[in-house]
Structure formats: structure tokens, C-alpha cells
Amino acid sequence: MRDSSNKPHFPACFVELPPETEGRRAAFYLAAEEYIAEKLPADDYFFTWQLGPTVVFGRNQSIRQEVDLDFCSREGIDVIRRRSGGGAIFADRHNIMTSLVTEAEAVEPLFKEYAEAVASALRQLGAPVVVSGRNDTVLEGGGKICGNAFYHKKNRCIAHGTMLYDTNTRLMEGALHPEVSKLKEKGVKSVRSRVGVLKDFLPFGVEELRRQLPLLLCNRTIVLTDDDVQQIEHLEQRYYDPEFLLGSTERNDAIRRGRIEGCGLVELHFRLHGSLVKEVELTGDFFVLDDVQQAFNSCFSGQPFTHESLVQAIRNHHPEQSIRGLTEESLIKILDN
């Protein structure tokens, strides 16, 4: 373990990605962090990236506590789980994402140095910022503009952050305010903070800010090759695994119920693993026409627990046909109760 007090991490080595990787999904850049940690020689590596509208949430969080998945689907907002802890963030092209990959060592000094280095760079550019007790960067008058997180890999530590130049407030608020009143949920909730934006303090746009950061934080460059990109793309696929993206270590319950004229009371007891349906049990005073449990589990098991996904599953599999007097539309209506 290196003594960070003897060897600072900045200025770091800037990692330049091929131009064709610009605008990839968040999972690509998170995989790039892992690739750099696993494959590149020992050094301190820094790079920046930007995203289309995206929610990135923490390793230990339940997605349904953090994200309105239906809103994100309607608005074309990507949703990705990262491997570090911390809370959920919304990012778009008005944000700059920063990544530092370095040798593994005591976390607190490294995390503090990373936050202080980024804050120092912003102060040099004219933004009145300080580092908070959580190693986030905030405006002196209040308002969080950089949130940071970290995690360890073998012999390496990865720290990354989100820098808020500006944002689409409607998308941010819609994506990060889920409806969870009908769900008995366990997980680590995000701590919502009042945010500020750098555009109010800097005399240039987000593109120039992104260009300036490596000039202030780095003094050497390494350029990744097309072969490097292919290997990153291979690592990227792990972030799309439904168990990693939507699952969690906790099992949760969600109940939907409704009384349908000519059918009776129908209660759907969903058992969830994170936000994936593992199984569903039915109770009520209805009459069955077929194996109800098999019909409903065949329909819903493995589906993301979102309204749109469940409705589509009903339209594809028609489990309502196993219950006397239950129609497709009345079953869909039960999902809203």
C-alpha cells in the first residue's frame, strides 16, 4: 500500500479515448475504468466523459427507491448501476463525468485528494467552490455541484464524480422521484441535496470546461487503441446483466389488488429480487379456469417490476384467461391499485 502523503496523485496521466467512443452509454465508461485498473501499468489515470440523459445509481441501492423507471422509459433516459457506493445521480450532456484510477491504498486520503484536486481546478477557472465533509464539491453559497464515489479493485482504487455545469431540471426531478408507496422496499436511500450549476460562475460553456480540466489536472497522456476499446466493450456487457442492474441482495414484497364485477377480489403478491419479479402468488375469492399460479408466474417471472413491463407481459401472455370473469383491461387496472 502506497503512502499517499509521499506521492500525490495529481498531476495524473490523462487517458485519451478514440473519438468514436464519444457519446457511448454510461456502462462503457464504467467498464473503461475497470479496464484501465486491470490492464494499464501502475500510474494515476484521469479521464472525462459525457452522457446522454442517464441515471447512474449506487451498488447498494434498490432501483425502485431511486428511479421512476416508467418515466425514464417514456423519456428515453438510460439507467445504469455502478459498482461504487453512494447515491443516485442524473446526468446529461450538461454534466462532465470524471474518473480517477490509481493504486490501491487508504481510501480517505485518496478520496479527499481527488475531491480537492477537482475543486482546486474549478477555483482556478473561476468557480467559488469548497469540499464538503462527504468529499462532495459545493458552492461557497450552498448548492452541490460535484458528487463523488469510489470502490476498490485488486491493487487499484477507482474514484469517479459528476460535475454539474447545467441540467434539465424536469428530467432530473422526474427520473429521481419514484412512487414507492405501494412497495415494501429495503435498500440504501440517496440523500437528496440542493444542487447548484457551474454555468452561473464560468465565462465559457461545458465543452470548454471539459477541455480545461485535463490541462489543470494532468501532465502526460496515454491514448487507448481500437483493441483497448474492444476489450472495454466486452467488460461493458456485464453492466447490462438484469441481475446486476435490477437485482439486489434483498427480497421485497409488492401487492396489487382489485375487486372486479363478475370476477371477485383478485390480489397479486409479487415477490421481487431487487426490481425483478421472481414469482407471484394470487389470493382472492375468484373462480379459476386453469392453473392460476402457473399462468401468472409464466407471465411475470423475470420481468422488470415496472408498469409498462407488466402491462406488456399481460398483453403477450394473457394470464387473465385462467380466472373466470377477469379481462385483460381489468387485470391491467389492478396494477394501478
Topology (elements, then pairings):
Layout: E1 12-16, H1 26-39, E2 45-49, E3 54-57, H2 63-66, H3 69-75, E4 78-81, E5 89-91, E6 95-103, H4 107-125, E7 129-131, E8 137-139, E9 144-153, E10 156-164, H5 169-175, E11 183-184, H6 206-217, E12 218-223, H7 226-236, H8 242-246, E13 251-260, E14 264-273, E15 276-284, H9 292-300, H10 307-317, H11 328-334
Parallel strand pairs: 1-2, 1-12, 3-4
Antiparallel strand pairs: 2-6, 3-5, 6-10, 7-8, 8-9, 9-10, 11-13, 13-14, 14-15
Give an overview in words.
There is one protein chain. This protein has an eight-stranded mixed β-sheet, with helices on both faces. Strands 11-13-14-15 form a four-stranded antiparallel β-sheet. Strands 4-3-5 form a three-stranded mixed β-sheet. The chain has eleven helices and 15 strands. The model is unreliable at 1-5 (pLDDT under 50). It has two domains: 12-245, BirA Bifunctional Protein, domain 2 (2-Layer Sandwich), CATH 3.30.930.10; 251-334, 2-Layer Sandwich (Enolase-like, domain 1), CATH 3.30.390.50. It is 31% helix and 27% strand. With 337 residues, it is an alpha+beta fold. Helix 1 links the parallel strand 1 and strand 2 (45-49).
Shape: elongated
| Rg estimate, integer Å | 23 Å
The tally of domains stands at 2
Average of the residue pLDDT scores: 89
Distance between the termini: 55 Å
CATH architecture of the largest domain: 2-Layer Sandwich
The portion of residues forming beta strands comes to 25-35%
Structural class: alpha+beta
